[in-house]
């Protein structure tokens, strides 16, 4: 993986995370920032266009070329072997740097890398307290929190071939919460900026400035603040209420932009549920300051995303 801004001008910039960790908010910010830098007078963004300039890297339609057969006739191992070639072809087709969202772990699938480092420029990795992730992911998935706690602790956990927003997709390999986080953050790499969701909540101006600078973007302070304002949680939730949001799973009866705050676990999880999550993910929780005894009291205040 090359350091951004050096050696090569084309490749994938991964916007990576375990699900429900701030990936969509970050992409909304980047879309807002690009909009504001083009038009400082912009009053609103279209949340259903935040993928502009990007691709769905696991879209099934991209794979037959490298499988020499329909995706439906290919094994998971064959799809895994084709994935690096698909990513390389995307870069060649774009001919420039491109953002690509992923929930895949930076790991192996049937012995083949899920992330083709040879065509990658770098990454933004979003990490969020698994105590809060369990609540948010359970709501989105339409399942109970106890089931989600077990899912988040399952080694090699993945989602099989599926259709999302009308796009047929091949399987993804998310891994457990700890596997996903460790795969992108250990060992540290200069091309991978690790951002805590909670830090973006606490100080969005400082956090998103780091994101912009890592991506070699140079907004003015006014542009940065305007982009943050356009992508704050209340605006995104209002736009979803008005226009709908294409990325919300059809099976979900909850809003995608549900609450947007840290510390929900203090109100929603039982002591036993907290203990089970800590037992499974304690080492990485400690590293990122997520153990209950490390959590600052202000997280319980229900602070929302703000401009």
Describe this structure in words.
This protein is α/β, with parallel strands linked by helices and 307 residues long. The protein has one domain: Rossmann fold. Helices cover 41% and strands 13% of the residues. The protein has twelve helices and ten strands. It has helices at 23-38, 64-67, 76-94, 130-141, 145-152, 177-185, 197-202, 204-214, 221-230, 233-243, 265-268, 271-287; strands at residues 11-17, 97-102, 108-109, 112-113, 120-127, 158-159, 162-164, 167-169, 172-173, 192-196. A four-stranded parallel sheet has the order 2-1-5-10, with helices on both faces. A two-stranded antiparallel sheet has the order 3-4. Strands 6-9 form a two-stranded antiparallel sheet. Helix 4 (130-141) crosses helix 5. The radius of gyration is 19 Å and the shape is globular. The two termini are 33 Å apart. Residues 298-307 have low confidence and may be disordered.
The helical percent reads: 40-55%
Q: What CATH first level would be assigned?
A: Alpha Beta
Fraction of residues in β-strands: 5-15%
Structural class category: alpha/beta
CATH architecture label name: 3-Layer(aba) Sandwich
Mean pLDDT: 87
Q: Which superfamily, in CATH terms, is the homologous superfamily? A: P-loop containing nucleotide triphosphate hydrolases
Order of helices and strands: EHHHEEEEHHEEEEHEHHHHHH
Number of strands: 10
> What is the number of helical segments per DSSP (H or I, 4+ residues)?
12
For the termini, the CA-CA separation is 33 Å
């Amino acid at each position: 993986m090359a350091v951004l801004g050096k050696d090569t001008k084309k490749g994938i910039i991964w916007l990576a995370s375990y699900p429900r960790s701030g990936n969509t908010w970050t992409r909304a910010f980047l879309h807002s920032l690009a909009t504001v830098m083009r038009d400082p007078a912009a009053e609103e963004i279209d949340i259903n266009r935040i993928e502009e300039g990007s691709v769905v890297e696991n879209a099934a339609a991209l794979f037959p070329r490298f499988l020499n057969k329909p995706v439906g006739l290919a094994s998971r191992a064959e799809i895994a072997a084709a994935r690096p070639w698909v990513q390389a072809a995307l870069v060649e087709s774009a001919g420039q740097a491109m953002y690509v969202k992923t929930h895949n772990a930076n790991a192996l699938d049937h012995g083949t890398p899920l992330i083709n480092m040879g065509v990658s420029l770098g990454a933004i990795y979003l990490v969020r307290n698994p105590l809060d992730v369990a609540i948010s992911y359970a709501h989105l998935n339409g399942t109970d929190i106890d089931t989600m706690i077990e899912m988040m602790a399952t080694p090699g956990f993945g989602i099989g071939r599926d259709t999302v927003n009308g796009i047929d997709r091949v399987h993804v390999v998310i891994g457990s919460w700890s596997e996903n986080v460790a795969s992108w953050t250990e060992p540290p790499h200069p091309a991978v900026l690790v951002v805590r969701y909670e830090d973006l909540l606490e100080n969005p101006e400082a956090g998103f400035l780091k994101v912009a600078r890592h991506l070699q973007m140079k907004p003015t302070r006014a542009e940065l603040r305007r982009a943050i304002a356009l992508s704050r949680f209340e605006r995104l939730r209002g736009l979803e209420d008005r226009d709908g949001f294409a990325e919300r799973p059809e099976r979900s009866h909850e809003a995608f932009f549900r609450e947007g705050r840290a510390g929900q676990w203090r109100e929603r999880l039982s002591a036993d549920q907290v203990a089970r999550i800590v037992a499974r993910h304690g080492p990485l929780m400690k590293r990122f300051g997520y153990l209950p005894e490390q959590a600052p009291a202000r997280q319980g205040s229900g602070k929302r995303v703000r401009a």
